[in-house]
Amino acid sequence: MKEIIKKMNLLMVILFGLLLASCNSNTKKKAIVETDENGYALLTDEQVENIVRRSYQYVAMYNVNNKFAASPKTNFTTGGWNKGLTNTELLDHTVNAIARPNNDNLYQAAMLDLQHDAVVFKFPAINSKYVSLMITGYDHYVNIPLSTIYGDFDKPTTMLIYSSRTKGYEGEPVEGIDHIFEATCDFVSVVMRVMPHAVEQERYDQIVEQINAIEGMSLSEYKGGEAIRTPEVNFPAIGETDADIFENNLLEVMQFVFNHTTFDENNAMDRAVLAAYEELGIMPGHNFDSNTAVKINGKKFRTMADKIKEESLALMLDPSMMELLGPKMFQPKGKTDLKTIVALSVIGPIGQPMDQAMYRPVNVADGSVMNAQNDYVIRMTKEEMPPALAFWSVTLYDQKNGFFIPNDYKKYSVGENAGFKLNEEGGIEIHVAAGRPAGVPLENWLPVNREDQNLDVILRIYAPDLEKMKTWKAPVAEKIN
Question: Measuring CA to CA, which of 25, 96, 201, 397 is 20 to 30 A from 72?
């Protein structure tokens, strides 16, 4: 009898092993793409373009979020995950962590690893006419759970943030928590924009004091326990640019992203990106092994990424296209499309939806590209001023990198925080020039260095009057010399 039982137990072990092997073979599909003589996956130009387009939002946000978190080559970081950055001074030209930052808000940022515990923030009331809280993961979908536009920040509030993979928390109510937010990724950026009223010293000082009173903690700490020790994460390398990732380690980055992102089978964009990578062996739940992974021609992918970048830059500088894309810019999942999110990923991945802020390029009247070898003037009459319910700003960047133009005056924008002066009729002239023109107030001058450098000017309108925006036209720049 004992022998029969032993044989039955052995048979059960064998059957269980076969079943496990079968499950593994079903969940760990191997790449099905053929390879060329160099060992690269045989992909048509159309396949490469499809993969790059559908990857751009993830690559751009992986790059920028991880730079914000801990890149030693940037000077605007939180210094790690589950840490925060308190920023009480307007940004300057030394900031290189993100393309086209703005110089009219104070950014308060936290980079969260939500795998092991939820995170709680306690926000005080803030005496500013514009404050918003933005949460964004590697998928680049933008959520604004709190904003002065919605009536928030007029009193203290407490928020809990988690993902579907957060251990020990599944979305249940917690005493004392006013808002609960489920993020679509395990690794997210939480960015608060605070309009500092920088030209009102007393109010500015009060806002700085309120910013310093913001508290962040793990849910365990909020409940009175000890913080859960978060293990170190082996992140794939970031790139100096997004094109570096497309060339050097795209598959490794996307495997990491897939493992830490919530995908929805009912979302067409989610289904398409997962399908594009399945034949390359990249699927949620897998581990990346460089020794066995499919090899792709990195230079070909970089060339395609550069091509899409140039197309997207041209798209974003076309006012008519901006009108079409505007309602789909910086939206939550399901409320945008591929063309819009790729263009935003290229020009500067951190931004807000149109009810919070609108972004309009200021183009040259004659259709040429703005260049630092020339001077320009941007004119607006009283009737042509931006219809902002909060405030507006005009900011200058170099086109190649999207960074502020270095200058001794640390003058990168014109607006309520950087300063501006209206003329007697209530309009304004803003000069982009190597030297301050005679009679032009310092507040209305954006300095450039006289060199062959293409420029971008972006007009931001915070809390826009959406009805007036239907007929309002962005100003143009007139070349002076």
Answer: 397
